[in-house]
Amino acid sequence: MNPERIKSNAAFQLGWYYRLELAPGLFTPGVDHAGVVQTRDLLERTDAENGGCDGGPASCLDIGLQEGMIPLLLARRGVNDVLGYDRALRTSRLNLVESALDHKFDLIGGMSLQQLPAALKQAGRGPFDLVVFSGVAYHMFDPMGGLAVVRGLVRDGGICVFETTVAFDDSDAMFFNSRGRFTPQGLWFMTPSCVDYLLRFVHFEPLDAVFLSGQPAKGAKPAQGRIAVACRAVPDAVSAGGDEWISAYGFLKDFAEFLDWEALKLKNEAPPVGYNAERKGLVRRDDGSLDIGATVAQGSPLRIDRARTNLGLGDKY
Length: 317
Description:
Shape: globular
Helix content: 10-25%
Structural class: alpha/beta
Radius of gyration: 19 Å
Oligomer: single chain
Mean pLDDT: 94
Distance between the termini: 24 Å
């Protein structure tokens, strides 16, 4: 597509979330979002090319699509069964991306995340081999409910890449963004230990994590940043350190509002999606699962390559 035609398109003049290269040297007027660098780092370690139930490319769902960076990256790896979801689809921007890059998005939207499972069931889609849930949870009124919904969309053995804001505190707390003290936008900042526990509670086993430092502590407000975790969907809650409560009281019925455990059994015979969790500095528990709190406390933030906040024409990872 001619660069001048791209620039003259009304959608190009709008506010964009991502900076996408639509022609050589021509990027959409988005913002450098450091969080997506974490997501891309974990996706690169996920064997999406061979993670499908038949050994072929994985079936994927991107929650929080924006202008489609994640589906574009996966398509360039030969992973074409990628469904993009957003509560409000950025239709004109997505149409421009499709025209400029000769790509066709598979989309679903115009509904809340809580309504998505029913829509997917009606369409005969899911559960998926790989789900990306990046930059969404901290905007939700109910992040734990959101995680439960997402768990219901990942088949057992599948991978979820979860990315969100984080408050660097040693507790299991989730800090509310009262008076906008953390950010002008967003509602909740989980601690690393809270992220760890909630993932385990909804039957996700943490495999790998990276984090970014942000604003320092100020008064009663803890330091803040972002975190991304690759986790595997497993049939049961993942206990750690002798914790019997997490699975002892039969919480399965309490999940019924958010997910259908029986539906997940339809694809639970497929082999696990491959993931390369070999990374210096990861702290593991005795059962081999990742200790997110200890990994953050003892580790160093991910080094940011600012170029990876943008999507270049040749980028695959």
